[in-house]
Each structure stands twice: as structure tokens, then as C-alpha cells.
Amino acid sequence: MSGLAYQLGETLRSLRKNTAMVVSVVLVTFISLGFVGAAALMQMQVNQMTDDFYDRLEVSVFLCTDESAQSACPTGPVTDGQRSSIEEMLDDGAASQYVESWRHESQQEALENFQESRGDSVRAANVTADDMPESFRLLLEDPEEYPVVTELFAAVPGVESVADQQEILDQIFGILNGLTVVVLIIAAVMILCTVLLVSTTIRLSAFSRRRETSIMRMVGASKSMIRVPFIVEGVVAAVLGSLLACAATWVIAEFLLGQWLSEQVVGIAFIGGADSWIVMPGLVLLAGLLAGLSSWVTVRKYLRV
């Protein structure tokens, strides 16, 4: 017990003696793991948005109109019989096994939706119902089956084209995933800075206490008794920084995503503060492991016992 008390006392004394360097380690660890936490939150948000959007992913079957190109609609505008055949495909035909639900959108409804989405723009004011396509909106059982549904309706008489939101969503999620990678690269650079700073701090601490270390060797102190306080010093400083990063992660998830963005962007499910608790243990563990490893390597290299 006396050995443990001595090691703790030496660690606290060293932390007080090297306050400036310890504060530097805490701040750099806070910033680096803050980036790691932000990247983890971004990926969690992307995953949640992916699941949410895929659950609402619609396939649009656009029907031929008077304005359709001859190449796409050689038989002219869709007839009542063709429209009924498409409805039969959706209810009891080949497409029914892939479709969870469907709705018909008339040209007038398409115009109203278009004008509502565009507001008071000049283009919306000049568009008429005849300019808008009639369509069937399909919600799929499995969104990944959209290529099969597209193929089923592509050659059906009365159908001008089949479109889905997959390509747009892929572009959005590609951008978000790219931002996550950029944040992770910045975090990796900052973590490297943290490791180097921890090593430098331990080296300076070992150098300033070289006389005490020599005396301890002469009186027969074990290697672990001499080395452990230096290692604990680095771990304590890094863990303190990781706790600040955990707090920042919670603030971002709770207030930026869970409250502010959810009020600004309606229709998207955002993560909240509770989700950040999944990330926090990893940040603390990462800080402890990196600081412990770098401190151990530095002590073995520069502290001869």
C-alpha cells in the first residue's frame, strides 16, 4: 500500500511541477478526440438518415402525356386501359410482391406539389397542369429491390419513364461520408500530435527528476515503482482531455443536432445527446491506450533503470 501511495504522490507532484505541459496535453487531446467524436456523430447521423430515407424511398412511375416525346411514348398519352393494367400489376401482378403501398398522383396534384415546393418562384407560376406528368408513387417492401421494379415497368405501355430517389440519396450520403473522412484525417493528425506531446512531456519530466531516479535506483527501488508514476502522468493528462472531448460531443449531439438542426430542418430524424453516450467510452479508452503506450515507450527509451 505504501508503494501505491508513493506512486500516486509522485504522479501528483509531477503533474503540479509540469503544469504547462500537462495543460498542453489536455488541450491537444481534447481537440483531437473532439474531432474523433464529431466524426463518429456524423457517421451515426448518416446511418440514421440512410435508414430513415430508405424506409420512405419512393419509385415514381411516370405516365405518358400529350407533352411526352414520341420515342418514349410511341402510342401517345396513357389510356384508361393502360392505367388499369398498371394498377393490376401493383395490386395482384408481378410488381405486387415488391410494393408495400402505392398512390396515384394526377397532373393537377403534381402541379400543386411542385408549386408548394417552389414557393412563389417565377417558374412555378408559369407551369400548368399539362406540363406535369401523371405518375404512380410506389413505396417498396425492400428499397434495394428498386432495380427490379424499374425493369418491370420500363417497357409497360403507357409508361414514359421510371425514376427513384436512390441516385440523389447516394450523392448526398457520398458527400456526408466524404466529410466524415476529412474529419477523421484531421483527427488522426491531431492524435499524432497528442502522442508526440505526451512523449515530450514524459521526457522532460524524466529529465527534471533524473537525480531522484538515480537515488531510487541506489536504494533498490523496482523498475515498476520508478516508471509507473511517469506513465500514469501521461494517462491522467490524456484522460482529462478525453473527458472534455466527451462533454463537447454531448453538447454537439444534444444542442446542435438534437435541438437546433432538428428545428431548422424538418423531416429529418437527428440523433440526440443520448446517442453520444455510445461514443464517449471509446474516446476515454482511446485516450488512455494512446497515452499509456506512448508513455511506456518513452519511459523505456529515455529512463534507464
From TrEMBL:
Subunit: Forms a membrane-associated complex with FtsE.
All copies of domain FtsX extracellular, residue ranges: 57-162
Keywords carried by this UniProt record: Cell cycle, Cell division, Cell membrane, Membrane, Transmembrane, Transmembrane helix
Family: Belongs to the ABC-4 integral membrane protein family. FtsX subfamily.
Sequence intervals crossing the membrane: 20-42, 179-207, 228-257, 277-299
InterPro entries in UniProt: ABC3_permease_C (IPR003838), FtsX (IPR004513), FtsX_actino (IPR047929), FtsX_ECD (IPR040690)
Task of the protein: Part of the ABC transporter FtsEX involved in cellular division.
GO biological process: cell division
Pfam assignment, any one: FtsX_ECD
Protein name, as recorded: Cell division protein FtsX
Residue ranges constituting the ABC3 transporter permease C-terminal domain according to the UniProt record: 185-302
Topology of the protein relative to the lipid bilayer: Multi-pass membrane protein
Localization (cell): Cell membrane
A Gene Ontology term for the protein's cellular component: plasma membrane
